[in-house]
Design goal:
This protein is an alpha/beta fold. The chain has 28 helices and 46 strands. GO terms for molecular function: ADP binding.
Length: about 1250
């Protein structure tokens, strides 16, 4: 054994002082890479010699090794799996043997290794096995002969790349093996030494990390010449540290100076920030300096010694912005190309003006959550069948929080299955201690006011409108403006675009547990009773006390008897009362005589009363209005003459009055006394025709909601006084005279200068008012559905605050020429409008994020190149238009939909590296009809034929792809590199060849003609949950039996064999549709699909007998259509859960089995079963019966079995005789359609 000379100083990676002491249990995912080592070799030469020995020793050392199995070499193109394996390996070891160069695969692997060495600083360690480096470098001997052969088969470009790679690899440090048995141990020791680098230990149960890494890569590492800060924020336990470590590991090869400071918050509390300053200096300078004396000394030393150095620093769990100043100073002091990664629960930490890139990490989706849970609970990616339902419940409870999934999964893995139920019941109510400990860190950082807001949200207000809840917190002096901001920054809550409050399930349960613990689990001392059952116990048991501040009750007949003045009087400090009606038992009378006396009102501290469908037998005077802030009496049945209106006048502090759905109210009451009212909600008051003039006195009114008041035609002139009004919601009303809108005698909308939101959807206006130009604060203007609207005046472009403009479903032909003045516009929607062109001024809208022009069927011509200047654009939709050309689009795009029949060539989308969703539909031909057998070639002479979009491989972040284009005959092989792709729809009529597709697919739809190759291999798609293939060319579907996660299978127009493929392994399949599979006869394998819920057999022409379906216990829908040879359905035995039964065009079917077993059948549809004579059995649950064209049918079941029937349709059933008794029996429960 000897070592070749090298001059490759860059091939070894920098070693972090905090690195691994030894690598004995390295795993692929412990550093965010897939593999530690990639072995490249020529199988016949070394597979059973040095390669096998080296592989075994590497694995024994705990080094995760990828073996280049020749089984992966399918077809002529370089396999995407091999490419990914090389790219995601830390070290590559090519073993050069005598015939290595004979394999084009080995040579392609070598080219990729050397490329990764340049771009990813991958370590390459060559071994020369019974060949010399000189033979390899100069291609002499066997290598020369190999290249003589290659030059006859391959083009010069490939030859040049191979030769260059061979030359470069021989300059690296490696080994020449002449039979010395010590070589393998030497190589393994070298690998172990090289793995002692800056890599940080990460769990080997990583799930869903790669997509985050790719997104961050495009934002953080695209420009190597600047200094950038990545701020990963999110709630505790969401995986911030794990993601940060993976990114650190993935990109540390680019930096000589790396440092990881763990647990900054905890370490600074225990050891002081000076300890971390010393570690930062020591790790980067790689020398031991004298310890800094104090924080200021540390700041000065860091600035002096690290200034100008290119560094990679990871600061984990930073909770104070001051820590950044003390550890980094000004980030621009570091050298160009430096990257700082910070994790924190507090988003405010990242409020650093210099090049900060915040990245919010949220919970996992259901699929990822299930996979992570199963890794910890079962040591596999998916649950066993017997654990599937239980696993799904766990995932729902944990809400996608990785920490909770890990904790509960690890716990269950060590517990008997008999105890799982009890563990989960406890976990449903209270998070595990490990989870609580992490969540408590964020809670403890809040002040007392913020804690109270957090607890109120956890117990009461999730899903509520922030603008409503704000008032009760403000009245309680909790400083909600500051408090909500702090809770958001700490990732404890979110506020959606619709102002709805949101909190993670685990945080909700954590907060509720705090409330439980504060009262020592005694309900009568609990401040917030959110559970109606527990609240009822307190009221019915007469245990209400002064401690109770919030109460949620279900008002049933049990509570009715206890709901008295006396009991409510015990709740002297009650501030929030929510009464949820149980409508089935709603009382109209029967209240005890002593329920409510006429004495002075009770509950003087009450701030919020929510009582939907307020009982008409009660009086509102029972409740004190003195401190009432929010009053919600939605869906109540009182009119404008109700006695309660006079009592509401006493609510001088009232901020919100919600009267949604009060259908008997024709006119609003006099509200002149409620001068502090800010929100008046009258949505869906179907009888409302008049707004009282007193509304003009509500000078603090901010929101007026009149949506769906369809009888309301006019607003009073007094509305001109509402100078504080910000939102006027008049969608779907009959309003014709909104002040100023229909230039009559009114022009007072100009006074409403505070308006920020004005939706005029489906309102009969022919043009916006001229006065609209003075609404300088208007942010949202929707004219959607205004059918009379044909033109937008230029004055609308004076609305410089406008953020959203919706012109959808109008007859507007063109956009204003001065559109570019709307500098703050982010959303422009015009779907279904008559717009004919996009003006070049579109390029001036620098903040625009969304353009939606779907179904603009008059939109044609070329999209202006100026659209490429929109650097913030994320969503672009040109589906169902007639555009003929797409220019270069901005890289910021995340979603792109293009659909046109006027485009002659595919657009170039090669620069859209951030795109996650692409729908490309370009066609001049009608949709492929599945029932037709005609295979006539489609005439697409108007199109320029393009075999494939060659740029497809560039779209590395693509998650959803739909290609519907008749010019595409061959898909480019790079589509297999789209490792994030989850959904793929190929609707390409002339597609001939299908390349290897990415194994990440969850949904696959292929629709093609007879041009497509005759077989398809699905064995690579282990995660696939939905498969739809519509193609008359395909005869063989391989690997279907291995799709154990498949839930939906839809096969149509396939020229399959007589026997259906074996489906017995598809235990999760719940929907199966087979259509127009002409040769199919035997469907016996359907019997094994015990989880099937929907079965549709359409056009199975050779099927004469339906298989036994008795094992399909979960089946809810059965459709048998166009099965022209079907003569017999044996039985519906076992189908107790069947809800829908549709039988159509079964000309040979004469009888149905007894339907009495179908206890849940609600819909029976029989069409054109010409020989069917009789329907037998009781149909007690049936609601909808439709019989059409069954002209041999003579008898129906006894009418007494139709007791739940709601609809009966009988058409063209000439033989069916129904006497008068039948009609009398059912006439009371349905209206018959003849």
């Amino acid at each position: 054994m000897e070592v070749t000379s090298v001059s490759d100083s860059s091939s070894s990676l920098a070693v972090n002082n905090g690195g691994l002491a030894a690598v004995t249990e390295t795993t692929s995912m412990s550093s965010g890479y897939d593999y530690d080592v990639f072995l490249s070799f020529r199988g016949p030469d070394t597979r059973f010699g040095i390669t096998d020995s080296l592989r075994r020793h590497l694995i024994e050392a705990g080094i995760h090794t990828f073996i280049d199995s020749e089984d992966l070499r399918v077809g002529e193109k370089f396999g995407p799996k091999l490419l990914e394996a090389i790219r995601h390996s830390k070290i590559a070891i090519p073993i050069f043997s005598k015939d290595y160069a004979l394999s084009k695969w080995c040579l392609n692997e070598l080219v990729e290794m050397m490329e990764c060495r340049k771009t990813r600083r991958q370590m390459v360690m060559p071994i020369f096995h019974h060949v010399t480096p000189s033979e390899v470098r100069y291609q002499t001997g066997s290598y020369g002969k190999a290249f003589l052969s290659h030059e006859e088969k391959f083009d010069g470009n490939d030859i040049s790349k191979w030769k260059a790679a061979l030359k470069d690899v021989t300059s690296l440090m490696g080994w020449v093996n002449r039979g010395d048995g010590l070589l393998v141990r030497t190589v393994v020791r070298k690998v172990i030494d090289e793995l002692k680098t800056a890599y940080l230990l990460v769990t080997n149960c990583l799930v869903g990390v790669e997509s985050h890494v790719k997104k961050i890569n495009t934002r953080m590492f695209c420009d190597p010449e600047d200094v950038r800060i990545l701020g990963i924020h999110g709630m505790g336990g969401v995986g911030k540290t794990t993601l940060a470590k993976v990114i650190y590991n993935r990109f540390s090869y680019r930096f000589e100076n790396c440092c990881f400071l763990s647990n900054v918050r905890e370490t600074s509390q225990k050891k002081g920030i000076e300890y971390l300053q010393n570690q930062l200096l020591s790790d980067i300078l790689k020398i031991n300096l004298p310890n800094v004396i104090n924080v200021d000394d540390g700041i000065k030393t860091i600035k002096e010694r690290l200034c100008g150095k290119k560094v990679l620093v990871l600061l984990d769990d930073v909770n104070e912005k001051s820590h950044l100043d003390e550890l980094m100073g000004s980030p621009v002091c570091f050298g160009l190309g430096s990257r700082i990664i910070i994790t924190s629960r507090n988003k405010d930490v990242f409020n650093v003006p210099e090049a900060c890139c915040p990245y919010e990490l949220t919970g996992m989706d259901f699929r990822q959550s299930l996979q992570l849970f199963c890794k910890h609970a079962f040591g596999r990616d998916h649950p066993l069948d017997e654990h599937a339902n239980f696993s799904n419940e766990v995932v729902k409870i944990t809400g996608g929080l990785p920490l909770a999934l890990k904790v509960i999964g690890s716990l269950l893995s060590h517990k008997s299955k008999d105890h799982w139920g009890d563990i989960m019941k406890k976990f449903e109510k209270v998070p595990r201690e490990e989870v609580k400990r992490v969540l408590k860190i964020s809670y403890d950082a809040l002040d007392e006011w913020q804690k109270q807001i957090f607890l109120d949200m956890a117990c009461l207000f999730i899903g509520f409108d922030k603008r409503v809840v704000f008032h009760i917190w403000n009245d309680s002096n909790l400083f909600p403006g500051e408090g909500l901001q702090a809770l958001q920054q700490m990732s404890l809550i979110k506020i959606g675009k619709d102002n709805r409050l949101w909190m993670h399930n685990q945080l909700r349960d954590f907060g509720r547990d705090i409330v439980h613990q504060e009262c020592d689990m005694q309900l009568e001392r609990q401040t917030i009773l959110w559970n109606p059952k527990e609240a009822s116990k307190v009221v019915i048991g007469k245990k209400g006390t002064k401690y109770t501040k919030a109460l949620c009750l279900e008002f049933d007949h049990h509570l009715q008897q206890s709901f008295t003045n006396e009991e409510l009087g015990r709740l002297s400090n009650l501030r929030y009362l929510e009464m949820r009606p149980v409508l089935d038992n709603w009382p109209t009378s029967g209240f005890p005589t002593n329920s409510f006396s006429t004495n002075s009102p009770i509950l003087s501290e009450l701030r919020w009363l929510s009582w939907h469908n307020f009982p008409p037998v009660l009086t509102l005077t029972t409740f004190s209005m003195m401190n009432m802030v929010i009053l919600d009496l939605s869906w109540s049945k009182f009119s404008e003459s109700w006695d309660g209106w006079s009592h509401i006048k006493m609510a001088r502090k009232l901020k919100v009055l919600n009267l949604t759905g009060c259908a008997q109210m024709h006119k609003t009451p006099d509200l002149s006394s409620n001068i502090n009212l800010e929100q008046l909600i009258l949505e869906s008051c179907g009888s409302l025709t008049q707004i009282d003039k007193s509304i003009g006195q509500l000078t603090q009114l901010v929101l007026l909601n009149l949506k769906f008041c369809r009888k309301l035609c006019k607003l009073p002139e007094e509305m001109a006084n509402l100078e504080s009004l910000e939102e006027l919601l008049i969608d779907c009303t009959s309003i014709r005279e909104v002040p100023g809108l229909l230039v009559n005698n009114c022009s007072s909308i100009g006074n409403l200068t505070s308006l920020s939101r004005l939706p005029l959807e489906n309102v009969a206006v022919s043009q916006p008012p001229l006065e609209i130009r003075v609404l300088i604060k208007l942010e949202q203007l929707s004219l959607s559905g205004c059918k009379l609207l044909k033109k937008i005046p230029d004055s609308i472009c004076n609305l410089e605050s406008l953020v959203m403009l919706n012109l959808s479903h109008t007859h507007i032909v063109e956009l204003p020429k001065s559109l570019g003045n709307l500098k703050n516009l982010k959303i422009l929607r015009m779907r279904g409008s008559s717009i004919r062109s996009i003006p070049s001024a579109i390029g001036m809208l620098e903040k625009l994020k969304e353009i939606d022009a779907e179904f603009c069927q008059r939109l044609e011509g070329t999209i202006p190149e100026d659209i490429g200047r929109l650097s913030s654009l994320e969503i672009l939709n040109f589906s169902n238009t007639r555009i003929c050309n797409i220019p270069k689009l901005p890289e910021s795009l995340l979603s792109l939909h293009i659909g046109t029949d006027s485009m002659k060539t595919l657009p170039d989308l090669s620069n859209l590296i951030n795109l996650t969703e692409l729908n490309l539909e370009i066609s001049q031909v009608p949709n492929f009809c599945l029932a037709e057998e005609d295979s006539t070639f489609v005439d697409t002479t108007e199109l320029e034929w393009d075999p494939s979009p060659r740029w497809i491989g560039n779209l590395c972040n693509l998650e959803s792809l739909k290609l519907s284009c008749d010019t595409i005959t061959v898909l480019h092989g790079d589509i297999g590199l789209l490792s994030e792709l989850k959904r793929l729809e190929l609707l390409c009529f002339n597609l001939q060849i299908l390349p290897s597709l990415p194994s990440s697919l969850l949904c696959l739809l292929i629709k093609s003609s007879r041009s497509l190759e005759t077989s398809i291999d699905l064995s690579n798609f282990e995660e696939l949950s939905e498969l739809r293939i519509y193609s008359s060319a395909i005869t063989d579907v391989h690997g279907l039996e291995g799709l154990k996660n498949l839930q939906i299978l839809d096969l149509r127009a396939l020229n399959t064999h007589e026997r259906l493929l074996n489906l017995s392994n598809l235990k999760k399949l719940n929907e199966l549709q087979l259509g127009h599979c002409l040769n199919l006869i035997d469907l016996q394998s359907i019997q094994s699909l015990g989880n099937l819920r929907i079965l549709k057999l359409i056009g199975i022409l050779q099927l004469d007998k339906l298989p036994n379906l008795s094992n399909l216990k979960k089946l809810t829908e059965l459709h048998l259509l166009q099965c022209h040879s079907l003569t017999e359905i044996q039985s519906f035995e076992g189908l107790e859960k069947l809800i829908v039964l549709k039988l159509g065009e079964l000309p040979l079917l004469e009888r149905l089995p007894d339907l009495s077993n179908l206890k849940k059948l609600t819909k029976l549809d029989l069409q054109q079963c010409h020989n069917l004579v009789k329907i037998q059995g009781r149909l007690d649950s049936l609601e909808d019966l439709c019989i059409y064209g069954c002209n041999s049918l003579v008898d129906l079941p006894d009418p007494s079995s139709f007791k739940n029937l709601k609809s009966l349709q009988l058409h063209d059933c000439e033989m069916l005789a129904m006497d008068q008794a039948f009609f009398l029996a059912i006439s009371s429960i349905l209206k018959m359609e003849e």
